[in-house]
Amino acid sequence: MANDILKGKRGIIFGALDEHSIAWKVAERAAAEGAIFTLTNAPIAMRMGKINDLAAKCNAEIIPADATSIEDLENLVNGSMDKLGGKLDFVLHSIGMSPNVRKSKPYTGLNYDFFQKTIDVSALSFHKVMQTTMKLDAMNEWSSILALTYIAAQRTFPDYSDMAEAKSMLESIARSFGYHYGTAKHVRVNTISQSPTRTTAGSGVKGFDDFIDFADKMSPLGNATAEDCANYCISMFSDLTRMVTMQNLMHDGGFSSTGITAKMLGKD
To answer: Could you read off the pLDDT of 59-73 as tens digits, one per residue?
Structure first.
């Protein structure tokens, strides 16, 4: 059920690949709630996905951009303001990639060039996005910037590999940049720590089905779905959460606060 809580708001959504992407679900919900936005992804990712279908469904423009490239980001932000008719009210950073994970490198035998790529794509790009929007004065006051993260930033999941370090940096960047953006422009910056979700990217992690099953048994409410996460993102883009910033918001059905459950003990 839509309530037009984003009516009149403009934004950029990074990372929609296909219908399994959280960013895809966010775009659908944002459009339903009255927002207008541009969609973006790296050119290589766009060739692999279905972003054109999403753009047609949401009546959104697509502006390809490599989020590690300042030049691309400047083109994206300026192009978005031009196409949308003004400054932005929200940005979703839903980007993550590890060459080490893709190539099944063990954590104790990482390729460090790959590791730097993981950090650049999955974490440093978030800083670059915000530095670019700040430099171009692209965000309205009380706007909202979000990035998606995972609890491996705080706890060890052996097969999550160097993505854990990237997520830790991502969350730190949100706190640090959130302070500066808040004092300068009242812009809110937060991360959402989502349950393991069957996205195209997430499914590339070794043992991912075991991650999902374990988290579901440990979470009193069960795992949060991609649709649930989209709803949470919409609430964070809205004016209803305008005093929330610099937070890592757990969206995991209670997983992060649960020590053990009856299901894990085989009593349920």
So the answer is: 999 999 999 999 999
196 falls in which pLDDT band (50, 70, 90)? Answer: very high
Q: What interhelical angle do 70-84 and 125-135 show, nearest 10?
A: 50
Helices 226-237 and 22-32 meet at what angle, rounded to 10?
A: 50
CA distance 215 to 256: 9
Provide the residue count of the chain.
268
Amino acid at 260: I
Burial class (CB in 10 A: 0-12, 13-18, 19+), 3: exposed
Q: Where are the beta strands (DSSP E) in the chain?
A: 10-14, 36-40, 61-62, 88-93, 139-149, 188-194, 248-251
Cβ(76)–Cβ(63) below 8 Å:
yes
Q: Which residue has the tokens 């990074």?
A: 14
CATH number of 10-257: 3.40.50.720
Report the 3 state secondary structure along 66-88: CCCCHHHHHHHHHHHHHHHCCCE
What's the pLDDT tens digit per position in 138-179?
Answer: 999 999 999 999 999 999 998 899 999 999 999 999 999 999
d(CA 222, CA 213): 10
The position carrying tokens 């893709």 is 102
Query: What pTM was computed for the model?
Result: 0.95
Domain boundaries, the chain: 10-257
